[in-house]
Amino acid sequence: MKTVPPSTPLQAQSSRRTFLRAGAAMAAGVTAGLSLPALAQAKPVTLKAVIQHRNGESYKKWLWLQEQVKARTQGQVEIEVTTIGELGLGGTEMLRVLKSGVIDMAEILPGYVAGDFPLIEACDLPGISTSMAQSRQLYDAWTENVVSKNEAAMGGKIIGSFCWSTMFMYTKFPLDSLEAFKGRKIRVFAPAQARFLTALGAEPVSMTTADVYPSLQRGVIDGGITGTEHVKASSLWEVTKYMTNVNIPPMGSYVVIGTRGLAKVPAELRGIFTGIYKELSDLGWKLGADNDQLGYAYALEKGMVLTKVSKPEWVPQLTRISKEDILPWWAGRAGARAKPAFNEFLAPVVGFKLS
To answer: Distance (Å, rounded) from C-alpha 86 to C-alpha 10?
Structure first.
């Protein structure tokens, strides 16, 4: 699998230095034993959050979270948001950056960080889910019983899950059959997606969302996997014609507050973050569904050929790849806990076990 490094403009490098320097200074203060409650009397505690982007409906959860945290802490805690693009990051390093204490909160995309924590990717494996409702069930079960119990790997506490949107295949060429993938260069953002496309005869190319449009425009890739919000947000209708469902599930993610970030919050206020999970998650998954409806409408308005549901004649082959290739491969790289955890917590939802 090829990897295209993210673009890092000079402005992004400068923004990154300023943002991370401030975070590092606060982290150093905590390490030195400074009294955060005492500091909070002089000014609010500002938690630095790094998100993927501000595109689509999903960003609204951060506006809600900023308002709720400020109100529920009576102004003692605030959240400052910046994007990975503004910092010149790619997204794959988020767990490491969060653990360092340089940032306080982050959006964690399982496919992006699966190289550091393979167990996290279970709910986003191609073929595992056929609807957003089923994906939410999977995320709730996996989060409660597996991911949230791995705070050391996550670098902090999960305070919510959310869904970006349903993942589609955007291509310049018509997908009349799965044979059309052979020899095509396709953008992916997760190891399991790369495996999936390889099984279909394509050449996976890993790159950030920001690089998808120019890569399609220049012919570096022939298509790519991404969410419905990017029909408009990334103007994909200008560089692709076909938007096709190939059984890649709606992409969920997590909002995490780092262990060091939570330590900056006065002790009596920390329960606000640990108790907001259901509200934040309900909103986050609703916004993902909103992204879908807006994306479908915009794609049709711009004349794209939209295939909302995977073609019935494709399903047997796609299911076979998932069951016989993707899932066993994931279990092998995720370690000894993967198979029994999948069979206990996810198999009742998806209807089959890992043998």
So the answer is: 10
In a domain, 3, yes or no: no
User: Which CATH number fits the domain that encloses residue 27?
Assistant: 3.40.190.170
Q: Phi, psi (5° rounding) for residue 292?
A: -60, -50
**Largest Cα–Cα distance of the chain, in whole Å?**
65
Do 194 and 156 lie in a common domain? no
Segment 214-235, tens digit of pLDDT: 999 999 999 999 999 999 999 9
- Across the beta sheet with 167-171, the strand order is 2-3, 203-206, 185-188, 223-227, 167-171, 242-244, 305-307
d(CA 217, CA 214): 5
pTM, to two decimals: 0.84
143-201 residue pLDDT tens: 999 999 999 999 999 999 999 999 999 999 999 999 999 999 999 998 899 999 999 99
* Shared-domain flag, residues 97 and 56: yes
DSSP-derived secondary structure for 296-331? HHHHHHTT-EEE-S--TTTHHHHHHHIIIIIHHHHH
CA nearest to 176, candidates 316, 313, 320: 313
Among 250, 249, 247, 231, CA closest to 289:
250
278: in domain: yes
Q: What is the pLDDT of residue 36?
A: 47
